Amino acid sequence: MNPTEAIFQFIRRFIKISEEEMHEITPYLQVRYFNKRSIVVNKGEIDRYFNFVMEGLVRKYFVHNNKEINLYFAREGEIISSTRSFIQQQPSDVILETLEATSLISIRFEDLETIYARHPFFERIGRLVLADQLIMKDDWEMSLLKETVRERFVNFVKHHPDLLQRVPQKMLASFLNIEPETFSRLKHLLMKPPATE
Predict the structure, then answer these.
(1) If you write DSSP's letter for every residue of the chain in order, what string do you get?
(2) What would the pLDDT profile of 43-67 be if each residue is shown by its tens digit?
(3) Among 24, 122, 144, 152, which is least packed by CB within 10 angstroms?
């Protein structure tokens, strides 16, 4: 799938868009390639790009008391950026790192501003995408407060089984706010085949 088609499919999740409208932003799209375990944005660096994951996997995390705290994992068809850094064009307080060889479709901050100014339709798309991200973040924060550790683990595995295979266990435990030992035990119980009579 080419970059334009990938972005076209993503946008159509939110709003109807014609091919002619889609071609308005095609000149601004850049495809960037990263090897596994490459830093896309480092702490203290200004995030200049809004990214769509065409292929691969990117994690967002920060370090606190020498411990990595994982905030998000973006895979194919999802967006990723150091949100505050990108929007405010200020140094990032998080790190974006690839966990697999990754290709990103990216739009520079300045180009996105140009698109919004020239094509108000795309500003509406931007608002819809942002609203979707905020709702997803809100849902996640609620699950951290309302669900038990076991419920949170089971729901994650139910909705994101592929990440269980693609992301190191220690990182997933951090993301789910579960101690690594508890994560390992829950994983063992969940994957254990049912006893036969």
Answers:
(1) --HHHHHHHHHTTTS---HHHHHTTGGG-EEEEE-TT-EEE-TTSB--EEEEEEESEEEEEEEETTEEEEEEEEETT-EE--HHHHHHT-B-SSEEEESS-EEEEEEEHHHHHHHHHH-HHHHHHHHHHHHHHHHHHHHHHHHHHHS-HHHHHHHHHHH-HHHHHHS-HHHHHHHTT--HHHHHHHHHHHHSPPPP-
(2) 999 999 999 999 999 999 999 999 9
(3) 144
